[in-house]
Structure to design on (261 residues):
DNA sequence: CGACTTTGACCTGCGC
DNA sequence: GCGCAGGTCAAAGTCG
């Protein structure tokens, strides 16, 4: 079921995500999402739905155990750097603890895997994921000294849903020249092409209009909070261009989009 | 020709 | 220790 898959996709904040998915009816009817998210009760109700639905219960223990462990690491790690030893190829530094960063995950209904977000990305890997028919792609920000990575995968149950997980924080501005252009990038997020459903991990990344409800979500999992919002009716005109599209979606976290090294 | 993608191999962590 | 799964590297190929 998709719930199980999503638990694997999001290594922390599973409860929140699971709740949101169910609350929004993502696996079945996307037409309801806008209505549900527009109401402030969406998040509240989502919590009550958590872990009560069929299909995800049997994995809860193991998943949550894993989640706890990972979330602990996530919270302590704010760096965006790759953990690999410099210039040593595939080998990671021995004894270095593998740490996962707080992720910012977006669920986006899109036909294309790689969504333009204003930054330039280079694909460096692709792997088949267990329990998913769709491979996961790995991208890295092409800007030098920017260690931001992202993973892109498709929803198991609904291939039209693209799940993009960002790791790290950009320490630079959006490149002046994009493959395409900014307007094209904006078009990627336009309602005509897709229905953005950002699932945000990390306290403080919540859109202002939903942050009042965020406490319900943040309280459970600890670490990176997974968060979903499907009704971003933003216009990108008049926004600060340096933060890019994601910044438009999430006005608050300048530290995320413009992290200093 | 530079930027990017593809893809198989390799490495690490983790559970058994 | 072994096998699995996830993540990464890097050579080769592709594209504009």
């Amino acid at each position: 079921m998709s719930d199980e898959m999503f638990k694997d996709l999001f290594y922390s904040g599973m409860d929140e995500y699971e709740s949101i998915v169910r609350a929004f009816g993502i696996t079945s009817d996307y037409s309801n999402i806008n209505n549900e998210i527009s109401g402030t009760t969406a998040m509240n109700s989502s919590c009550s739905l958590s872990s009560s639905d069929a299909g995800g219960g049997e994995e809860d223990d193991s998943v949550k155990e894993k989640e706890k462990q990972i979330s602990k690491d996530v919270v302590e790690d704010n760096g965006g750097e790759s953990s690999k030893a410099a210039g040593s190829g595939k080998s990671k530094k021995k004894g270095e603890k593998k740490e996962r960063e707080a992720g910012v995950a977006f669920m986006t209904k899109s036909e294309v895997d790689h969504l333009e977000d204003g930054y330039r990305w280079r694909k460096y890997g692709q792997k088949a994921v267990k329990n998913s028919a769709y491979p996961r792609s790995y991208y890295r920000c092409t800007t030098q000294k920017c260690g931001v990575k992202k993973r892109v995968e498709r929803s198991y149950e609904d291939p039209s849903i693209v799940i993009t997980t960002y790791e790290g924080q950009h320490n630079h501005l959006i490149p002046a020249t994009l493959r395409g252009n900014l307007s094209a990038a904006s078009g990627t997020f336009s309602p005509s092409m897709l229905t953005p459903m950002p699932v945000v991990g990390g306290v403080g990344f919540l859109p202002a209009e939903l942050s009042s409800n965020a406490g319900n979500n943040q309280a459970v999992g600890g670490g990176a909070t997974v968060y979903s919002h499907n009704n971003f009716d933003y216009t990108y005109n008049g926004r600060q261009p340096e933060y890019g599209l994601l910044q438009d979606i999430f006005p608050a976290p300048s530290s995320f989009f413009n992290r200093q090294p």
User: Anything to note?
Assistant: The radius of gyration of chain A is 17 Å. Residues 42 and 88 of chain A are 48 Å apart (CA to CA). Residues 103-174 of chain A form a domain with the N-terminal domain of TfIIb fold (CATH 2.20.25.80).
